[in-house]
Amino acid sequence: MARATKAEALELDRDGWEYLTYAPGHECYACHRPIQSLEPVRRRVVDRTSGPPATVYRHNKCLSAQAVAA
């Protein structure tokens, strides 16, 4: 059985997303579209090699689309 890479795990690990929130003005990590006011998203903090951890947001619909595609 092959192990998932760290990038694949980030994409497929729905439980890794911390909580439901709203983040107008930010960009979705998956589809790169702007997040609108009152649009529910999930928040996650990712480690970076070039600096401090970064907070990213992802639409709920992008999460469910990824789970169906897997």
What does this structure look like?
The chain has 70 residues and is of the alpha+beta class. Helices cover 24% and strands 23% of the residues. The chain is built from 2 helices and 3 strands. The N terminus is likely disordered.
List keywords for this structure.
2 helices, 3-stranded antiparallel β-sheet
Task: Walk me through the topology.
Blueprint: H1 6-12, E1 20-22, E2 40-46, E3 54-59, H2 60-69
Antiparallel strand pairs: 1-2, 2-3
Please write the string of helix (H) and strand (E) elements: HEEEH
The amount of helix comes to 10-25%
Q: What is the number of E strands?
A: 3
Distance from first to last alpha carbon: 16 Å
* pLDDT averaged over residues: 76
Beta-strand percent range: 15-25%
Rg for CA atoms: 13 Å
Identify low-pLDDT runs.
Answer: 1-12
Q: Looking across the biggest beta sheet, what order are the strands in?
A: 1-2-3
* Sheet/helix structural class: alpha+beta
Q: What form results from the Cα inertia axes?
A: globular
Number of helices: 2
Please describe the biggest sheet, giving its number of strands, its sense, and whether it closes into a barrel. 3 strands, antiparallel
